[in-house]
Design a protein that fits this description.
With 651 residues, the protein is of the alpha/beta class. It contains ten helices and 34 strands.
Length: 651
Amino acid sequence: MIKARTLLLALSLALVGLVDVASGQTTVTVSATASHPIPSTMWGQMFEDISSGDGGLYAELLQNRAFQMVTPEGTTAALAGWKSLNGNITVVADSNPVSAALPNSLQLTVPAGNTNNIGFANVGFNAGLNVIPHATYKASFYYRFQKASKFRGSFVISLQDGSGTTLTSQKVSITGSQTSWKQVKVSLNTNIAPGSTSNMFAITLNGDSAAGEVINFAMLSLFPPTFKNRENGMRQDIAQALADMKPSFFRLPGGNNLEGQTVNTRWQWNNTLGELVDRPGRFGDWGYVNTDGLGLMEYLHWCEDLGMQAIMAVWDGYTLSGASLAENQLAPYIQQAIDQINFVIGDPKKSEAAALRASLGHPDPFPLKYVEVGNEDFFASDTYVYRWRDFVTALQAEFPDIHFIATSNAFNPILSPNPTEYDVHVYQTPTWFAQNSFYYDGFERNGTKYFEGEYAAISTNPDNIFGSTSQGRLTFPTMQSSAGEAAFMTGLERNSDIVFAASYAPLLGHVTHNQWTPNLLAFDAGSVYRSTSYYVQQLFSLNRGDEYLPSTLPEQLGTVFWSVVRNTSTKEIIIKISNTASTPSALTFVLPFKNVASKGSLQLLTGPATSSNTPTNPNLFAPVTSTIITGETFNYTAPAVSVNVITIKAS
């Protein structure tokens, strides 16, 4: 990266602060003149589907609901999530499948001589299925009898607790003459609050009257109430926690989730649309099957519901196995990327992909300004040269108003067309983040912008960042790791003339069934756990301002860091401070304004350095708001290992 002393740095250095050696007091002088506006996209979210889409943000409650990508005929994995209730169940390659996309079905054989209720149940993801009292659950499934019979009876569709006690149920009449697929939809209204999340969704029928019958089931689904009541939508509590951050953008469909281990298992936008019965799913990149129920349209609706911009990626010819397509093989994949973008923003009268969007209920285009070409292509930078060239040349010709983001290392290799934006990723220690708050200060201001698309303090061991927890890897963010991230974020804010967006990663992870730690939010079947890093991200997002005010620079290798912004509409000065030291830090702020309020608001996040919010102690950390004495000159002592946001009326 070319380094240069910038105007911003010069402005800040001109404001020389004094450290009183005797008292340890640091003086921070703030400029009245803004150096640059803060981008409206500054703080947002990056979604990586690491056991966090299906069974997480996506509200579907049934694991393995459509038997996608499983080997049928008696394999244990094929029945993941399912258990028999007195009958015989197996997954079969259906001779007459419910759709071309879903070739497998669950076959129930009702044994003779059993007067009990016979059927099967699903226990949810990771043996957890949350049942909320006084709510309506929407269940659906397809069924058909293998052979016509004179049977007449009914399915009992129910929610049960772990001991088999029925919480709510509905009956649906059926006949043995139904040999073609028929869909059943029912609403289950709950009144009883079960004692745990160890519940199940069951379908049964009378064993005596149904003896000998063989019935196939396909595309079974159960949804609780969803965020904003979206059909096929998001889990309410997780969605609300994310909405509470007020993010400006959402990066989709993820990083590695885009690429696939092979070309055939890459994420394909067109396979994630339409009726659930027509979505084949795929082998995901983290060791499990993606149903693709959370598809492109759901992502776009999610952005719409939260007022976020989409930062969307297109697949660019590279897979996680390290394979790159040859240049002469790229053409159909470039066309697929064109179609994907047209689906989002195209004119239905001119594009089949856009017409498909319109047919799904959204004739108007979605907003889209940024498109990433690939993900982490620094792993294949030699082939990225021609892949970037061929993709971007074609895409720019079709979409001249779109900004295309490169995912190789910045300016290495040299790419043509010249990227206007780069996506930068870093996973490091808390100390690294604090000591690199000046990372972007020396970047040349040459028109190139940067997206800090993935960052997190994930380990305390600089020699083995991606090691195990016994080697320093964090299970949950700690106050120490979050303070380090906050120090880095003050640098991102200071350099927001070139850093246009930033997002912590990963966004979500199950408490125990995960492939990556730490995560911004942890969850299980019934709860969401906000981490210290979640609160840091929220504090920065909710207190972003729209102008950056230069001030005395922190010591680059020091322990206390700050940034100062102004909200012009509310006439507020917002000071963000991260103290990464184990001792308090005394600061004096000098504000160059005539009218400064004598009192200001303080939002403070602090506590034991190595502690975390966990399922056993989920509320150990949370920001506390109070009032402090302020003025044109005022003193403030930032507690040890803390993140502080001071808001003052000033004009």
